[in-house]
Write a structure and sequence with these properties.
Blueprint lengths: L18 E4 L2 E4 L16 H18 L3 H13 L10 E3 L2 E6 L8 E6 L6 E5 H5 L6 E7 L5 E7 L6 E7 L4 E16 L5 E7 L5 E8 L8 E5 L7 E6 L5 E7 L4 E7 L8 E2 L9 E6 L2 E6 L7 E6 L2 E9 L5 E8 L3 E8 L2 E8 L5 E3 L8 E4 L10 E6 L6 E6 L4 E7 L11 E9 L5 E9 L10 E4 L17 H4 L4 E5 L9 H5 L7 H16 L8 E6 L1 H12 L4 E7 L5 H5 L7 H8 L6 H10 L13 E6 L8 H13 L6 E6 L10 H19 L4
Parallel strand pairs: 32-33, 32-34, 34-35, 35-36, 36-37
Antiparallel strand pairs: 1-2, 3-4, 4-5, 5-6, 7-8, 8-9, 9-10, 10-11, 11-12, 12-13, 14-15, 15-16, 16-17, 18-19, 19-20, 20-21, 22-23, 23-24, 24-25, 26-27, 27-28, 28-29, 30-31, 31-33
Helix pairs in contact: 2-12, 6-7
Length: about 700
């Protein structure tokens, strides 16, 4: 193992006196100076010097492990088809798909006429990314007449996208509509205008705008601007039948939707139903009706319909259910397509509009992840689906409702070879300390010994109602083949077992999330998958907060912890309403500015505030200098305080991407190299079975 003692002295951040008082309590924060006073510009020499020193320390650790990192990278790369391509999707007169060239980091996007003809390259990410440290194509929408494309590109990781209009015949950009776009744009029916959203200086999607192609940018109209609630974000979309433009606004718990004809987007907006605290709804349209997915009467949502002339009068179509979680709907011509989860397992349902008969699309495995894929047309001949499991590579199906048959269009190819019979998966229910049963998905290689002698990798997220699917990962095989079990803990805070599962891990119940993770770790020890101190754990963003909480509470369980872009300075961030996301986050965490109880509760678990003089496991912490979601100083302050407080000699590494944001480096190989680094850290610190 490579302990901190084998390396040069780690960086030591200066402690500078700083404190403030809230609700009669004085908070000391000697590392507050690591937040550049001119943020989002970061040019303070002391701040940059500290971040660069931490990166140099990371590189010093990395150097003797270069061979292991490269071995892992080559393994992972060998499992990826270098000239991979997607299954073509029909949209009107064209088939659209993407493809990688061998060795390329980025995709190329193509189309060809449905009736036949040559392939047409419509967007070349390789060329667009040339010479850039970071590149991300956020969205590309082709106009209904097929002549133009609206593209959103981020080339610095700030998630402020440049919206440009491209002529597909010439490949030339005609105009830049916005430099602060976000989300996916919507074309008007006549292909002569585009509706899009913009972020403000606080990186909040705050308005929807309408631009006519070729008109001066200063004539772009604002269709809706959110002025009432600084925590709400605005989004745009269109109905599946492409008759209506939808403009939504909301936060994590409350929403409202307006609509206008897609052929007259600047017509007066019709409000479907005014916002009500803690009520969410989203809408589609077909057959002269609005189809509404809402949690107004049941925590697991229901489906209602309404006449567009009386959009606030909702008639129940599908009642809410304690067992079936209605996650979303799409209104196709022949079916209302429902994405649901029953007892924690994905279920895809097609419902007949007239008879109400529901047909569940069948899948054979006991545990899997499935969803509706790309289905841009209103009346597809078959429905495109995506599917995988912990042992089954990503699979693309077309489902024909007339024959009730799944046609396999693509199975993820693994060029270096993969034999699914050599791996097995199981789903456990582990009892948490309050008696609730927490689902856990586990995959092992056959021959794994359940005697407590082998290591285990435990992953979770547990926030915002996002469930980590029990899907397939090629990178994960590098751990399984080295004797690891790999487990996903479906803890509260996600919506794995329904919306209440999410509610039971937020606000005043937030610590359920952390307790669930610890109790799952202990439960896996009890099941003899591993032993205390042999567990490697990883989580990112809010999952990084989870990592920070559990190493404070139960450090003895873990042999290595990877915390990616961790949200660990929770109290300070939630007290600062000038930060981009803070107001919109209060429904998730609480508002400690106004509410002393929220202040006390957040302070009781905030990882940065709860660091104590004790032994911590080896830690790899990552961040991004341009990250607008979890600002760079959160991981930096956490690392600095840990270094000054912990009593052990275990390795602590901080790596700050100086040219990337929340998602890390761009490009498929660069991203894979970061995974290889994380796995090398785990293997050198937590070991691997011999």
């Amino acid at each position: 193992m490579n302990r901190a003692a084998d390396l040069p002295a780690p960086p030591k951040a200066e402690q500078r006196p700083y404190s403030y008082e809230r609700h009669g309590i004085r908070i000391e924060d000697p590392y507050a100076w690591l937040r550049d006073k001119d943020y989002p510009k970061v040019d303070d020499p002391d701040v940059l010097a500290y971040l660069k020193a931490e990166n140099a320390y990371f590189e010093a650790w990395k150097a003797p492990h270069a061979q292991l990192i490269d071995t892992l990278f080559q393994e992972m790369k060998g499992r990826i088809k270098e000239d991979d391509s997607s299954v073509p999707v029909k949209d009107g007169d064209w088939l659209y798909w993407w493809a990688f060239q061998p060795g390329a980091q980025y995709r190329q996007w193509y189309r060809k006429p449905v009736t036949g003809g040559p392939d047409q390259l419509i967007f070349d990410e390789v060329a667009e990314a040339a010479g850039k440290e970071y590149f991300k194509l956020g969205a590309m929408e082709v106009s209904p007449d097929g002549r133009l494309a609206a593209t959103l590109v981020d080339d610095d990781g700030s998630e402020r996208f440049k919206l440009r209009i491209r002529d597909l015949a010439s490949g030339k950009d005609l105009e830049t509509v916005s430099t602060v776009g976000i989300g996916s744009p919507v074309w008007t029916s006549d292909s002569k205008g585009v509706v899009f959203t913009e972020v403000n200086d606080n990186w909040r999607s705050y308005r929807a705008r309408y631009h006519r192609i070729g008109a001066p940018v200063d004539q772009t109209k604002t269709l809706y601007e959110e002025k009432d609630d600084i925590g709400f974000s605005v989004g745009v979309g269109h109905s599946q039948d492409r008759s209506l433009l939808f403009i939504s606004t909301g936060d994590n718990t409350t929403s409202e939707v307006r609509f206008a004809p897609l052929d007259r987007p600047d017509a007066p907006l019709t409000l479907i139903s005014p916002r009500k605290k803690d009520r969410q709804y989203d809408v589609d349209a077909a057959h002269g009706k609005l189809w509404i997915h809402t949690n107004d009467t049941h925590v697991n949502f229901r489906v209602a319909s309404a006449d567009p002339a009386r959009p606030g009068e909702w008639k129940e179509v599908i009642p809410g259910s304690d067992r079936v979680y209605l996650r979303g709907l799409t209104a196709f011509r022949d079916h209302l397509a429902l994405t649901t989860r029953r007892d924690g397992l994905d279920q895809l349902i097609l419902r007949d509009y007239h008879s109400g008969k529901e047909e569940r699309i069948p899948f054979a495995e006991a545990s899997y992840s499935a969803g509706f894929g790309s289905n841009p047309e209103f009346a597809p001949a078959a429905y495109r689906l995506s599917y995988s499991s912990m042992v089954t590579p990503a699979t693309v199906y077309d489902y024909d409702p007339k024959t009730d048959k799944l046609a396999t269009l693509k199975v993820q190819q693994i060029p270096s070879g993969y034999d699914p019979t050599q791996y097995q998966t199981e789903r456990l229910m582990i009892t948490a300390r309050d008696g609730r049963k927490v689902p856990v998905s586990v995959v092992i290689k056959k021959g794994f010994r359940k005697d407590g002698s082998q290591p285990l990798f435990l992953y979770a997220y547990g926030a915002y109602g996002y469930a980590i699917p029990p899907g397939f990962s090629t990178a994960r095989l590098s751990l399984l083949d080295r004797g690891y079990a790999y487990a996903i803990a479906h803890i509260r805070g996600g919506d794995d077992l329904g919306y209440q599962w999410f509610l039971d891990g937020k606000l005043t119940k937030r610590t359920n999330t952390f307790n669930d993770f610890v109790d799952v770790a202990k439960g896996l020890v009890a099941e003899r998958f591993t032993s205390p101190g042999k567990i490697a754990a990883q989580g990112g963003s809010a999952g990084g907060e989870l990592m920070g909480a559990v190493v404070n509470s139960n450090p003895e369980l873990f042999g290595a912890v990877v915390a990616d872009v961790p949200f660990v300075d929770v109290l300070n961030t939630m007290l600062d309403d000038t930060l981009p996301l803070t107001p919109g986050e209060w429904p998730e965490w609480g508002n400690p500015i106004k509410d002393k109880a929220a202040f006390d509760y957040i302070r009781s678990y905030s990882p940065y505030d709860q660091i104590k003089p004790q032994a911590y496991p080896p830690l790899l912490i990552t961040g991004g200098l341009t990250d607008p979601r979890v600002t760079y100083w959160e991981p930096a302050k956490w690392a600095a305080k840990l270094r000054a407080t912990k009593t052990d000699n275990n390795l602590l590494l901080l790596k700050i991407n100086m040219g990337a944001g929340h998602g890390g480096k761009s490009g498929r190989w660069e991203s894979l190299k970061e995974t290889a680094e994380a796995y090398a850290f785990v293997l050198t610190q937590n070991g691997g079975a011999k």
